[in-house]
């Protein structure tokens, strides 16, 4: 029974794990391949009123991408991808200290400036089991600026459209139309 539960847990984690966090950082990867040219620009993510206190993080959406907005002890603001490897839980639930944000479930620490893993990979709790099944991987980081009552994050606004352009569309697609359009 324990083996069945373990197998189910591992299979579930693998289903939600990306192959490479670097895919977000380079424009020559499959993530950015699609019919739309890359268009990098600053877009609003959250209002400055919604910025968390130093040492905490919150989530937002910029250009259709889930973004973690973290504020360090000194008040500096950082933007990272809000999907925490290896199982993609929200990084924005993490605690910020010492130039890193810590995954609240598995304990991995990610550098706020580079997104790379700092210290041990998945050191806590169930992370010891899951961490051994996956290669250590970081999270994407994005340039961020604050002003005029809004926090803006620089993202490729066509990344989501390019990713979704690779969805299958046919007679039985989610929209119900053969061309993939909504009714």
TrEMBL record:
One of its GO terms (molecular function) is nitrite reductase [NAD(P)H] activity. InterPro entries: Rieske-like_NirD (IPR012748), Rieske_2Fe-2S (IPR017941), Rieske_2Fe-2S_sf (IPR036922). Residues 1-15 form the signal peptide. It comes from the Eukaryota. It holds the Pfam family Rieske_2. Residues 42-153 form the Rieske domain. Coiled coil: none annotated. GO terms for biological process: nitrate assimilation. Transmembrane segments: none annotated. This is Rieske domain-containing protein. It comes from Helicotheca tamesis.
